[in-house]
Structure formats: structure tokens, C-alpha cells
Design goal:
Layout: H1 4-20, H2 28-49, H3 51-64, H4 66-80
InterPro entries: DUF2484
Pfam families: DUF2484
Keywords: Membrane, Transmembrane, Transmembrane helix
Length: about 80
């Protein structure tokens, strides 16, 4: 069975390849694919290696998917009314 760190490394490489290819929708569909693939990897990392290393994986994912995270944060702020 593969270690989650290896698969997260492949996920990072996949995200770099996806970012290089041209896109008509500003890469949003690719971001959704990365989120769908990355969430189970992140859960697996938390389960296998604990909170500290899982948090590192979460930070890596947020650094790569910065615009979806930013728009999610704006949506949360609007919903909370602040």
C-alpha cells in the first residue's frame, strides 16, 4: 500500500501539470478535480500520520489551491455577516 505522502507528492505534480495547460474557464474545473482527489488523501494522511503531519498536508493543499480557498473564505464571511 502506498504511503499518503507519495500520493500527495503526485497530487502536487499533477496540479503543476494542470496549471501549465491552457484553460478556458481559468482552471476552475481542474481545481474541482484536485479538491475531489485531494480530500480523501488529506483524510488518509490525518488518519495515518496524525494531526501535525495532516496539518502540513492541509497547508500544502491550501497553498496550491489558493484561489478556491480565498473565495471559500469570502463566502463564509458573507454567510456569517461580517
Amino acid at each position: 500500500m502506498a504511503d499518503p505522502w507519495v500520493l500527495i507528492g503526485l497530487w502536487v505534480l499533477l496540479s503543476f501539470v494542470m496549471a501549465v495547460l491552457p484553460s478556458k474557464d481559468n482552471h476552475w474545473r481542474r481545481a474541482y478535480v484536485l479538491i475531489i482527489v485531494g480530500l480523501p488523501l488529506l483524510v488518509w494522511l490525518f488518519w495515518r500520520h496524525g494531526v501535525f503531519f495532516g496539518s502540513i498536508g492541509l497547508i500544502v493543499g491550501c497553498l496550491i489551491l489558493r484561489w478556491p480557498v480565498y473565495y471559500f473564505w469570502l463566502w463564509v464571511k458573507r454567510r456569517l455577516g461580517t
